[in-house]
Structures are given as structure tokens and as C-alpha cells.
Amino acid sequence: MQAKKAVLIGAGDRGARAYAPYALNYPNELQIVAVADPNDERRNRVKVEYELEEDACYTSWEELLQGGKKADIAIICTLDRFHYEPTIKALEMGYHVLLEKPMSPDPKECIEMEATAAKYNRQLTICHVLRYTEFWSTIKQVIARGDIGQVASIQLNENVEIMHMSHSFVRGNWSNKEKSSPMILQKSCHDMDIINFVMGKKCERISSYGSLMHFRKENKPEGAPKRCLEGCPVELECPFHAGRYYLGEGRGWAKKFTEDHTNEGIIKALNETDYGKCVYQSDNNVVDHQVVNMEFEDGATATFSMSGFTREQTRMVQIMGTKGEIRGNMAENQISVYDFSSKQESIIKFSKPVGGHGGGDNNIVRTFLHDIDHYGEQESISSAATSLRSHLMAFAAEESRLNHGQSIHIDDFYSAYATGAIK
Fold first, then answer.
1. Which domain of life is it from (predicted)?
2. What is the pLDDT of residues 339-381, one digit of tens each?
3. Is residue 281 situated within a structural domain?
């Protein structure tokens, strides 16, 4: 079988490090033939890694998508607010599209993207990579077999981890919801989606509370400068001091904002980018903790809690059924299934995953290629049509949070955007 050709639009962390490398590992299945990114270093790195000619490297998606179709697939990993236009254009041109989540921070755009994929008969898969992990797919299978009976409730905790919170959501690309998207959409649409996936039925109502409690100017230590390297008086006490962190245990995170990984290169970046700013004096406004309550069509419920104040980065789940219970921690890479009748507990341990997100990053690309070959025979497990419901849950949760926990009916919420009642 001949390898499918793909263009990469957006060569940041997710595009260049999560999805495109599949072509390096399986060149018989996928080939990157062009790249678009405004950043010279990122674009040139892809050029070298995938042996591209200069005329296959573009500074913008508009340039890349001019002059006719160049491949079978468009992998789109631009920033959240710049997903809509290249996705619509690529679908219209006949590309199958693998799109990083979230689809868009605008509900109306999400609805239009799903409709456009259907109109042009193209595969639009959203990168809800958790669905493609052995951890969550096994949980889905256990429930489908009826091992724990009917699911009554789900509790899912997303432990963001305190330094991941500071790096990505205080200093980083997703710190400001006007520039990217709200936390519940950017980070936790994975969680809305996986609850939707595991429950396997329609969420009808949702409510939410949360806030930006800690990373605020009023919590700034006395005398702390705007930038950590400008002589902070609490350098040795503050866990978020940029110099101590990024030149020490956080050096791996530093590789995400500078191509020069030497001490001098990191220091230069800390003096010039937002990653060197005091976490209490940054341009951040996304929540640092949030809870969401959900009611499903048969009366089952789910609760979700996201917190940036945790010591480890993981997801922990408890699924309570009428005949048994499932518990799992993604960091431990295993689940337990308990039977109420026999009082027996089964432990299912998974092999070490290959690639990020518990193996989901690698598996979604492989499945996407398979879905294209069999397009029309069965729906992708994270198609735009499937993903749209998960996005609406996230949008409705944010709407509820901003309105003091008001209960939102998902169907009414969808109709308001679909009919134009909400612009």
C-alpha cells in the first residue's frame, strides 16, 4: 500500500512532536510533503527532519493551500483560534483533516466545521487522543460487556500538576482565554469527551463552578519584579521562579519555548518571553480549578474536577455501576474492576505505552489512516460529528460557570447557536 501524503499546518509541540513523527516511524504509511508555520526555527526543523525542499515550506497556511491540492491529508495544529479557516479551506479542497482539539473556541464555528466535512464527504477527525489509549478503550469494553451493570455515576479528576499549570496555563500559550480558549475547552475538552465516550449516552444538563483563585496580582510576593531574573527577593522560596525551574528540573519544559537548549539560550528566552514572567504578574485569566456536574438521558450522573494544585499530572477515575465498580489512575497505567456479587477484584495492567498521552498520540494517527481507507463504512470514534457533542458540553460548562452555576440544557444550547439565536 502506498504511503499517504500529508501537509502539516502548525509545527508547534502537537504538530511537530505528537502527530507528524508517525511519518518518521512508519514511512510506508505516511509522508509529510509540506509544512506551514510562521516561526522560522520550527519550520526549518520540520524541513530538515522530513527532507523537504524549500518550496514545500510556507510561512502561512494560506500560502500552503494555494495552487492546488498537494496531499491526501492536512494535519492542522495551529493555535485554537486559528483552526477554523484552514480547516474549512482544506475540506473544501478535498483534504481529509486531522485537527488538534479543540475544534474552535467558537461553538458556531464547531457546528460549521462538522457540517462542512459532511458536505464535502471528507474525514474530519478531532484529536481526542484519550479515546485511542488502551486505558480508556479497555474501560469502554468492560462497560460494554456489562461487567459492572448499568453505569450510575462517574467521577473523573484531572490532576494538571502545579508546574504544568504554571508553564502552560499561566505563562504559556493557553494562559489567556481571549487569545486561546477557556480552560474547560482547551485542557479539559479531553475530559468532557472521555466521559461522553465512556458513558455512551447523551448528556442532557450541565452546571459548573470554578475560578482563577491563586495566580493573581494580589498574591504577588512583596517586592517581586515583573520578571523572575530581575532579582526576585523570594527566589529560593518560590517554586515558580523561572530561573531555578527551567534551568533545573523544568529543563524539559524549556525545550518547548526555545530551540537553544544551552543555559545561555534558556536565560535569553526567559528574558524575552512570557516564560520568564512572575506567575503572579502574567497575562493569564483562565481558571486554576473547576468542577462540572452532568446529568445524562437515563438519569446517570458524572462529576468532573480539574485542579492545577496537584503534585502529579494524571487522570483518576471511578465508575460506579449497578453490578460493580471500575477504578483507575492513568499514571499507574492500570485499572481495577470489582464485582459486587463475587466480591472479586480484577487488576488489568497495561503495557508501557508508545508515545504521548498513554499511546493515544500514536494510535490516533494510525486509526485516522485506517478510517480514510474505509471512509463511509463506519464513523471514526472521534469524528467531528461525535466530537461536537463533547465540545458543546465544554461550552455549556463555561457558560454555566460564568453564570453562577446555572443549569444548562445541552439541546437548547445547541439549538441557540445552530439557529443563530446566539451569535
1. Bacteria
2. 999 999 999 999 887 667 778 899 999 999 999 999 888 889 9
3. no
- Does residue 82 share a domain with residue 41? yes
Q: How many CB atoms lie within 10 A of CB 303?
A: 15
Buried b (16+ CB within 10 A) or exposed e, 11-24: bbbbbbbbbbbbbe
Contact in structure between 314 and 130 (CB atoms under 8 Å) = no
Q: Which domain holds residue 69?
A: 4-129
Q: What is the pLDDT of residue 73?
A: 98
Among candidate residues 97, 129, 161, the one where a domain is terminated: 129
Is the CB of residue 288 less than 8 Å from the CB of residue 309? yes
Q: Are residues 172 and 314 in the same domain?
A: yes
The answer on 124 and 19 residing in a single domain is yes
Q: By the 8 A CB rule, do 256 and 269 touch? A: no
Same domain, 95 and 192: no
Asked if residue 121 belongs to a domain, the reply is: yes
Residue 162's alpha-carbon distances to 40, 189, 308, in angstroms, are 31, 19, 5
**What's the CATH number where 53 sits?**
3.40.50.720
Measure the CA–CA gap between 105 and 284, rounded to whole angstroms: 17
Q: Is residue 96 part of a domain?
A: yes
Number of domains in the chain: 3
Q: How far is CA 167 from the centre of its chain?
A: 15
Helix residue ranges per DSSP H, 358-383: 360-373
C-alpha span between 315 and 220 (Å, rounded): 30
Give strand pairing partners of 211: 289
Beta strands in 43-120 (DSSP E): 57-58, 73-76, 96-99
In sequence order, which residues have a C-beta less than 8 Å from that of residue 379 and are 6 or more positions away? 385, 386
Q: What is the pLDDT of residues 195-244, one digit of tens each?
A: 999 999 999 999 999 999 999 999 999 999 999 999 999 999 999 999 99
Report helix, strand or coil for 266: helix
* Residue 354: predicted pLDDT: 66
Of 81, 104, 129, the domain-final residue? 129
> 115: closest CA among 323, 352, 414?
414
Residue 173 reports pLDDT greater than 80: yes
Owner of C-alpha cell 486554576 = 288
Instruction: Based on DSSP, count helices (H) and strands (E) in the chain, helices before strands.
Output: 15, 15
